[in-house]
Design brief:
304 residues; alpha/beta; Malonyl-Coenzyme A Acyl Carrier Protein, domain 2; Alpha-Beta Plaits; four-stranded antiparallel β-sheet; 8 strands
């Protein structure tokens, strides 16, 4: 049976994440120990002990989720579980690149650290916000953002599943879009507690920083296909994957379409490799034919 590995993004973190993996699996322990050597922050301490407020800071969240995902991946791999195709939600795409052999784990740590810091800094330099819109079609939300764009920068940022889209941009423009979405029949709109307008043009400074570090990171042809957030089309091309990793910072995460594409590849089974079960929940609303199993804890991995 063909299997996909899916790697989660921001919002899946929690205090204590990965601690059971660290204690139980030597492969996971090696990942966390490498993270502490390579990163500028003691990621083990933040993952295992928090505090929660620190773990929510983008510069810490992204390396934490990446580290947990890679620890779970190595534990799965050592037990003979290998993916046929991979995808990652936002920062999860970096984990997918490592899993597919495109970049090394150590380079992955270097990149995720810079990405997280750059996006946090960009969020302070060009302040913005994000909001979830529930109960409208994707094209309606895209039109809403276009309609209010004369008031400021606002764009769809995450097409998570049918009826759940996150928008991103300048605060007043996001609020205008929320009002317009309600008028169009949205069931709910919710401004999110985030530190920046991720996946929008306000992240452009982060693009420049990420581009600079990626010049020194070797990209190899993927050993298995990757479904990138930007195009949603499977690829193994290293230059394309590098370019898309950069574009992704200011482009929407097209997760709904990515998972529809996954279904066309003959996938009926997937593992959510990393913290939480967000992607499992989204898949239920996208394609019930694909069974997603959590694979971020010792119990979950031992049960596979």
């Amino acid at each position: 049976m063909s299997t996909a590995f899916l790697f989660p993004g921001q919002g899946s973190q929690f205090v204590g994440m990965g601690h059971d993996l660290y204690k139980a699996f030597p492969e996971a322990r090696a990942v966390f120990d490498l993270a502490d050597r390579v990163l500028d922050i003691e990621i083990k301490t933040f993952c295992f002990d928090g505090p929660e407020d620190s773990l929510k800071q983008t510069a810490i969240t992204q390396p934490a989720i990446f580290t947990h995902s890679m620890a779970a991946f190595e534990a799965l791999k050592s037990r003979g579980h290998h993916p046929h195709i991979v995808a990652g939600h936002s920062v999860g795409e970096l984990a997918a690149l490592v899993a597919a052999g495109v970049i090394s784990l150590e380079d992955g740590f270097r990149v995720v650290c810079v990405r997280g810091q750059a996006m946090q800094i960009a969020g302070k330099a060009r302040q913005g916000t994000m909001a979830a819109i529930i109960g409208l079609d994707d094209d309606v939300i895209t039109e809403v953002c276009h309609t209010v764009s004369n008031t400021g920068q606002v764009t769809p940022a995450n097409f998570n599943c049918p009826g759940q889209v996150v928008i991103s941009g300048e605060e007043h423009a996001v609020q205008k879009a929320m009002e317009a979405a309600k008028e169009k029949g949205a069931k709910r709109t919710l401004q999110l507690p985030v530190s920046g307008a991720f996946h929008s043009a306000l992240m452009q400074p982060a693009v420049e920083t990420l581009t600079a570090i990626l010049e020194d990171v070797p990209f190899s042809k993927a050993q298995i296909p990757i479904i990138p957030n930007v195009t949603t089309e499977p690829t193994t091309d290293p230059q394309e994957l590098k370019d898309l990793l950069i574009q992704q910072v200011i482009s929407p995460v097209r997760w709904t379409q990515s998972m529809i594409t996954l279904g066309t590849q003959g996938i009926t089974q997937a593992y959510e490799v990393g913290p939480g079960s967000v992607l499992k929940g989204l898949m239920r609303r996208i394609n019930k034919e694909i069974l997603v199993t959590e694979a971020g804890t010792v119990d979950a991995i031992n049960a596979i």
